[in-house]
Each structure stands twice: as C-alpha cells, then as structure tokens.
Amino acid sequence: MSFLSYFINGISLGSVYAIIALGYTMVYGIAKMLNFAHGDVIMVGGYVIFQLVFALGVHPFIGILIAVIACTVLGVTIERLAYRPLRMAAPLAVLITAIGVSYLLQNLALLIFTSNPKSFQSLINVPALKLADGALVISGETMVTIVVGIVIVVVLSYFIRNTKSGRAMLAVSEDKGAAQLMGVNVNGTIAFTFAIGSALAAIGSVLLCSAYPTLTPQTGAMPGIKAFVAAVFGGIGSIPGAMLGGILLGVIENLSKAYISSQMADAIVFGVLILVLLVKPTGILGKKIQEKV
Amino acid sequence: MALLEVKDLHVSYGMIKAIHGVSFEVNQGEVIALIGANGAGKTTILHTITGLIPSTQGNIMFQGKDITKTQGYKIVSLGMAHVPEGRRVFAQLSVYENLIMGAYTRKDKDEIQETLKKVYKRFPRLQERRNQLAGTLSGGEQQMLAMGRALMSHPQIILMDEPSMGLSPIFVNEIFDIIKEVSAQGTTVLLVEQNAKKALSIANRAYVLETGNIVLSGNAKELMNNDSIKKAYLGE
C-alpha cells in the first residue's frame, strides 16, 4: 500500500513538472529557444499570490487569477524586450540572454522580498481521500494537481489541433517564413505562445507552493530545471511528451526517495535522462528530425 | 497602371549586394517569366516583394500602393500569394489543414469552402489525399499542394518560385499546364524558373536576370529566338 501512495504522490509531483514543462516545450517548439527564465516566472507567480492572499487577504481565487495575469504580462514582456531583438541572432546568444533574465528575476525578488523564506499555506481546500480503511491516503493537493494537469493537456492539445490560432502555432513551429506567407503574424504568434506558457507557470506556482510551502527567490530554479528535463525526456516540442516526461520524472523521483535514497533521488532522475537520451536522442515521444529534400 | 511594379530595387545580405537596381512590371492578366541562372537573384526578388527580406533601396508598388515597407504577413491579404521555392508545405499538417492555412487571412467560411471545392476540382489528387500528412506526399503532389494553398487566399497575382524544380518530366508538364489554367482563369502570374524553355513557352513577356541585374527583356517568343538566350539558357 505504501508503494501505491508513493506512486500517486509521484504522479502528482510529476503533474506539476508537466505543467511547467509545457511552457518550455511550447516555447521551444515555436520559437526554437530554451527559455531558462521560465522557472523564475513561477517564482514571481508565487510571490504575487503570497502578497495578495497572505499579506493583503485577497480571496485565493482572485489572487490566483491576478497571478495568472501578472505572469502572462511578465512572460510577454520578457519575450518582447529580451528575446525578440535576438530573433535573428545565434542560438547561443539567446540562451545566454535567457540565463541572464533568470538571474535578473531572482535578484530582483531578492531585493524586493529578501532571502527570508515565506511560508505558504496550501490554497487547495479539498479533503483528503482515505481508501482501504485509511491505509492509503491521497491528499487534496495530490488529486487537484493531477486533475488540473490532465485538463490542461487535453484543452491545450485540442486548442492546438482544432483552432485557427493553434494551427498558426503549428505552422510557425514548422516554417516561420512559409507561415508568414500565409498571413500569420509570426511575432504575434510567438508572443502568444509565451503568454500561454507563462499563464501555465502561474498555475504551476499555485500547485508547487501548495505542495512545498516555502517560497524563496530560488523556488523556481530547481523545479524549472526538472521541468526542462521532463520536456527533454518526453521529447522537446511535443505536448503529450511534456506530460509523459513530467509524470515519469515525478514518479522516478518519488520512488527513488522512498526506496533508494532521498539524497540520491536527483542523481537517479538525471541518470535516467542520460540513459533515455543515449537510446533515443529526441526523447520518448520526440519527432525524428526531418531531412529536407 | 501595372498591377505590380518594381522600381530600382536593391537588396543586400549584410555586406554583399545581391540585387543592383532591378526594375520591372507585371500587368493585369499577364504571365511574366523571370529567368536566369542559379544565384542570379530571382528568389531574392520574390522574397523581397512578399516581405520575407527587406530591400535596401527602391520601391515595390502593388495595385498603385507602395508596399515596400508593408509588414510581410499583411501582403497576402492585399491579394498577392507566393508559392515558395522548395514548396515548403507544412509537413506535419494534413493536406486539408495546409489548404485551410492558405485561407488564413480570409474570414468568410462559406467563401473558403467554395474556394476549397475549386482547388479540389483542379487538383483531384489533393482531394483524394486530403487527410494525409503533407510530408508523405511526393514532390509533384507537394508542388500541387503549395499551389493549391496559394490559390486558397484567392489572389490577384501569384508568385511562383521554381515550380518545376526536382520534378519528373511528366509532372513538369502537368505543373505548367496548371499555371496556364490559373492564368486563363484571370490570375496574374509572376514565374521564376531555371527551366527557361518551359517558362518562355507559357509567358507573355520575360526578363532575364544575371548577377542581380536585368540584362534583357521583351516578348517571350522573341526572346526564345534570341541567339544569346538560345546559347545561354536553351541549350541550343
């Protein structure tokens, strides 16, 4: 029974990674860049919620809504100011800029909120589910996280495949020039992708801070890297891949903590990543790199 | 007034000048061929007209309006479609989705369906394969899809870049027949081709491009009989 409980908690943690990984994978798929500041957008979302809900007493629902809006604006602003001027630049320049933005956000948070950890109370008010006479307890956070993760992936997949803006995103991800010839505003589409990714980051911050209730300026860094690993694991650029990668990562991490060693858990996670990439360099659901005829 | 008028166009890639003051015009209803060897600047000119790359000097007028500085994504809604070199269909979208992408800037759903029917009628093979991913089509079918996709925007003028490239002779003939048909139905065509013989056989007028300059222009039939053209481009 304890295995099942570790496993379910792993899926829950994995769903958080997956939601964050979606932001990485969509931005990579469409702009072909790694937005390393994505994890720090989560941290900003956490502070926005903390300030609103715990310091000012705003209703949690409104607090989350404002955090989503704030992160969306932040993501679009970062894209406009830091990444768009580099659209034609070498990928390495963009990567270094992204790391720079990440440090900028962390240090701004350090200046404004100091390094003292803020203790976050769970915003999720769902009673725990007790199964098998209390031998298996699934917390409300766990259930909400898993459900939210599934809903996001389903809605996002539907949106991309079946709406005009979604198809425009697919077209831009494949060939920016050809998409432009169809009349697609490429810069607008990329900004829109950042908006979606950042809004998801805000939702990720609610779930993350509800499960791990300490908030510091570095809160977003490690989950950000793990989510990036999840995206690569599943096949970067692929939405189901991000979901699968996230959940696998969460499960492997939780089971390693439970049965092997909690210190070694991260090493095991990254070790599995290396193994997967050795066997399948494009990730589990990654597309083969197409050769142009 | 010409439908499309290019005046003293200059284009550079960084320090390297690719186009040195090219001027030409395309009148309503014409088929105009732009011929020249590899690297003469044919594709660059088309890319500049539809805003994929900026010009350094000169003007591009379309329907009397200066579109030199118009943002690239707004060009297609003005009535100008571009079938790019190498087809560039969206490999991971189905044939149907590719065609619908071609009508991206159009709003009226009924009119889009109407155009789709016409495109399917002209390219029955696209209708047969409408649910297939575009990446799985043969080269000739992809060329048809790229043309169908451009027609979906219901353009006044269609710019075609090397439509015969890499195709078998049977497909080449088919593609040129389709270009004639498109023209006969009232769409103006600006055709860039290395296959000068084929291009001149369907064009009204032609311009010959060499290293970023127009060196010769005139009636297509006359150019076909021009000795230097015969020698350099027609292999006679």
Return the string of H and E elements of chain A.
HHHHEEEHHHHEHHH
Percentage of β-strand residues of chain B: 25-35%
- Helix/sheet category of chain A: mainly alpha
Average pLDDT taken over every residue of chain A: 91
In one word, what is the shape of chain A? Answer: globular
Outline:
The complex is a heterodimer of chains A (293) and B (236). With 293 residues, chain A is mostly helical.
Could you explain how this protein is built, in words?
The complex is a heterodimer of chains A (293) and B (236). In chain A, helix 1 runs parallel beside helix 5, helix 2 crosses helix 8 and helix 3 crosses helix 8. Helix content of chain A is 72%, strand content 3%. The radius of gyration of chain A is 19 Å and the shape is globular. Chain A is built from eleven helices and four strands, in the order H-H-H-H-E-E-E-H-H-H-H-E-H-H-H. With 293 residues, chain A is mainly α. The model of chain A has no long low-confidence stretch (mean pLDDT 91). Chain A has one domain. In chain A, strands 1-4 form a two-stranded antiparallel sheet. In chain A, strands 2-3 form a two-stranded antiparallel ribbon. With 236 residues, chain B is an alpha/beta fold. Chain B has a single domain, classed as 3-Layer(aba) Sandwich (Rossmann fold), CATH 3.40.50. Helix content of chain B is 36%, strand content 27%. Chain B has ten helices and ten strands. In chain B, the strands form two sheets. Chain B has a six-stranded mixed beta sheet with strand order 6-7-8-3-9-10, with helices on both faces. Chain B has a four-stranded antiparallel beta sheet with strand order 2-1-4-5, with helices on one face. In chain B, a hairpin with a 2-residue loop joins strand 1 and strand 2. Chain B is globular. Chain B starts with a strand and ends with a helix. Chains A and B meet through helix 6 and helix 7 of A and helix 2 and helix 3 of B.
